[in-house]
């Protein structure tokens, strides 16, 4: 949580992985979060260094898929983003769907576009603590643009 404009604003970190970029899903994925009513506050198109990938997925360091995951995330550009809104962390996870696209519900990003756990298109922070850590791992504060969308009164009571 970040306190700005005198209200508590919830933020999450999302990244469209190299498969999502290669499959031309960038526009469709951003469209879904925009249409839902969340606010984009940071975005960059970038190649991920091995160091950043290993830090980001550090919790999985001992898992058998770790090396392959790092290879994959560093294999091509990603779209790193920060989105803001009430309940955005949990809501984005629902919109993304289960880790394995084969069990992810239709209507979710992974459920609609994926078939393999190692190619599941998008990352989303799973809790407030990880969201905060990931936002500051991937973005400097000055790379985030706080703004008030003119549609806010039509999205929030
Ligand atoms: N992953 C994988 N094989 C596995 C489990 C996970 O390749 O058996 C990858 C997959 O890309 C997943 C990422 O590791 O998105 C992180 O796993 P986590 O359990 O944190 O899933 P997520 O939070 O992304 O749904």
Helices and strands in order, then pairings?
Blueprint lengths: L1 E3 L2 E3 L1 E6 L1 H5 L3 H11 L2 E8 L3 H7 L9 H8 L4 E7 L3 H9 L12 H5 L8 E3 L3 H11 L13 H4 L2
Antiparallel strand pairs: 1-2, 3-5, 3-6, 4-5
The structure holds uridine-5'-diphosphate (UDP).
Enzyme class: transferase
Family: Belongs to the NDK family.
Subunit structure: Homotetramer.
Gross geometry: globular
| CATH top-level class | Alpha Beta
CATH superfamily placement: Nucleoside diphosphate kinase-like domain
**Remind me, CATH topology?**
Alpha-Beta Plaits
Strand content: 15-25%
Report the order of strands and helices: EEEHHEHHEHHEHH
Instruction: Tell me the Rg in angstroms.
Output: 15 Å
Number of strands: 6
Strand order of the largest sheet: 4-5-3-6
Task: Characterize the largest beta sheet: strand count, sense, and whether it forms a barrel.
Answer: 4 strands, antiparallel
Derived from helix and strand composition plus strand pairing, the structural class reads alpha+beta
- Which kinds of small molecule does this entry bind, naming each only once? uridine-5'-diphosphate
The residue ranges in which pLDDT falls below 50 over 5 or more consecutive positions are none
Residue share in helix: 25-40%
Give the overall pLDDT as a whole number: 95
Tell me the distance between the termini: 20 Å
Number of domains: 1
Number of helices: 8
Subcellular location: Cytoplasm
Keywords: ATP-binding, Cytoplasm, Kinase, Magnesium, Metal-binding, Nucleotide metabolism, Nucleotide-binding, Phosphoprotein, Transferase
Main location: cytoplasm
InterPro entries: NDK-like_dom, NDK-like_dom_sf, Nucleoside_diP_kinase, Nucleoside_diP_kinase_AS
């Amino acid at each position: 949580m970040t306190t700005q404009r005198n209200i508590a604003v919830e933020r999450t970190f999302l990244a469209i992985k190299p498969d999502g970029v290669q499959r031309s899903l960038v526009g469709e994925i951003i469209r879904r979060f925009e249409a839902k009513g969340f606010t984009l506050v940071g975005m960059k198109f970038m190649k991920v260094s091995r160091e950043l990938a290993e830090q980001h997925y550090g919790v999985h360091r001992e898992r058998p898929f770790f090396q392959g995951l790092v290879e994959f995330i560093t294999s091509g550009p990603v779209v790193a983003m920060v989105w803001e809104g009430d309940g955005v962390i949990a809501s984005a996870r629902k919109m993304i769907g289960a880790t394995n696209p084969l069990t992810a519900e239709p209507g979710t990003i992974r459920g609609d576009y994926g078939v393999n756990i190692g190619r599941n298109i998008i990352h989303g922070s799973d809790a407030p603590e990880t969201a905060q850590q990931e936002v500051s791992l991937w973005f400097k504060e000055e790379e985030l643009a706080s703004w008030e969308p003119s549609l806010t009164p039509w999205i929030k009571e």
